[in-house]
Amino acid sequence: MGETVKIAISPAIQLGGSLFTPNQLAEIGHVLGADAKVEVTPFKQLYAEVALEQRDAVKEKLEQIGLDVNPAGFVTKSLIACNFCKGAEEAGLETAVALNEAIAGIATPTPLKIGYAGCALGTSEPLIKDIGVVKMRDKFDIYVGGEPKGLKTSFAKLLRSGVTEKQLIPTVIALIDFYKENAKGKEKFGKFVDRISLDRLKDMTLMGKEGGGHETID
Ligand code: SF4
């Protein structure tokens, strides 16, 4: 096959959760070919290896049928969202779609998982994600530093409460940017949060600092 590259395929953020249609599954098989290996990841993406020169064409074909295609590896994964069982409006579907568009596929020091839950029941497990967003009535809580892997697991801690819809995406992007600028090598996000401290991250994401102008530390 020559040089290959891994791509991450995911369905749109939608009511009902991570749903593929039969047509999308058939098209994935058709586009990737009979010999392709398709891996189901724990973070709701399908990984597939494609020839480097075919990547753009494969991406275009899959996007035409409503799928998202992002890089695999050291990037932010597509948003790991809940099923929006309380309905599009109450669970914040539109916000989750916009958040996914803003964060999916950003190059990061280590793979970054961002979860979204439409209510405090948190069925998408936002507290075991690097960044977890939970809709609380008409505002959002943001948690950071969840670590589900290994023997030293930990729950994410509350970073900000009462975040407005307008503040949400700039705040999450500011966190990702701050991590990119200040992580030591391949430092995991949870360890980064512990080293920097929650208070400093809180300060960095306070009103007026989101989305730019945040400090860089040594
Ligand atoms: S987090 Fe809440 S809105 Fe989302 S699927 Fe679970 S119970 Fe439903």
| CATH class placement of the largest domain | Alpha Beta
> In angstroms, what separates the terminal alpha carbons?
44 Å
Please give the radius of gyration in angstroms.
18 Å
Secondary structure: number of strands: 9
- Architecture (CATH level 2) name of the largest domain: 2-Layer Sandwich
- Count of helical stretches: 7
Strand-residue proportion:
15-25%
CATH topology of the largest domain: Sulfite Reductase Hemoprotein, domain 1
Side by side, the strands of the main sheet go 5-6-7-8-9
Small molecules held by this entry: iron/sulfur cluster
- H/E order of the elements? EHEEHEEHHEEEEHHH
CATH homologous superfamily grouping of the largest domain: Sulfite Reductase Hemoprotein, domain 1
Largest sheet: 5 strands, mixed
Give the helix proportion (percent range).
Answer: 25-40%
**Could you tell me the mean pLDDT?**
93
Class from secondary-structure proportions? alpha+beta
- Which word captures the global form? globular
What is the total domain count? 2
Which SSEs are present, and which pair or pack?
Layout: E1 4-10, H1 22-32, E2 38-40, E3 46-51, H2 55-64, E4 68-71, E5 80-81, H3 88-91, H4 93-103, E6 114-117, E7 131-136, E8 139-144, E9 157-163, H5 165-182, H6 189-196, H7 198-204
Parallel strand pairs: 5-6, 6-7
Antiparallel strand pairs: 1-3, 1-4, 2-3, 7-8, 8-9
Bound molecules: iron/sulfur cluster (SF4).
